[in-house]
Design a protein that fits this description.
This protein has four helices and seven strands, in the order E-E-H-E-H-E-H-E-H-E-E. By secondary structure, the protein is of the alpha/beta class. It has a seven-stranded mixed beta sheet, sandwiched between helices.
């Protein structure tokens, strides 16, 4: 049960790439990453689930509650059918759109590029959680 997180920033959009599994024992790492993006004045938070293997319903409920307290738009992209089934069964898609990467790119990324005023650097730290260890690469 490992969770890896890769953060990508494009203007006021933060894309959190989830790698591995999200369970109750790893959800707090995701909360810390989301909180850090909130402090960076993120307007749109995308959870890229293309490499998310699984998420348990309890973690999903905690994530849904945590995200609902944030003042930003949240979308989930590239969600596998297995994970999407879990999300829909737990009403995760009530307030959070589930999109393909193509739709996300056209609706959010391209619009952000048009409104961009100053160039911004893209950060790309990788945060991995192994049992008992937090590694920054």
């Amino acid at each position: 049960m490992n969770l890896g997180i890769n953060i990508e920033r494009k203007n006021d959009i933060s894309i959190i790439h989830l790698i591995g599994d999200v369970y109750v024992n790893t959800i707090n790492i995701l909360f810390e990453v989301i909180e850090a993006q909130t402090k960076r004045r993120t307007k749109i938070l995308a959870l890229n689930c293309s490499r998310l293997s699984s998420i348990d319903p309890n973690s999903l409920a905690l994530l849904k509650k945590y995200i609902s307290s944030k003042l930003m738009k949240v979308v989930a992209i590239n969600v596998s059918p297995k994970v999407q089934k879990i999300m829909k069964a737990n009403d995760f898609d009530e307030n959070i759109e589930i999109l393909t990467s193509k739709i996300f790119e056209s609706e959010f990324i391209k619009k952000a590029k048009k409104t961009r005023k100053l160039p911004q650097k893209t950060e790309n730290p990788i945060l991995s959680l192994l049992p008992g260890n937090i590694l920054f690469k």
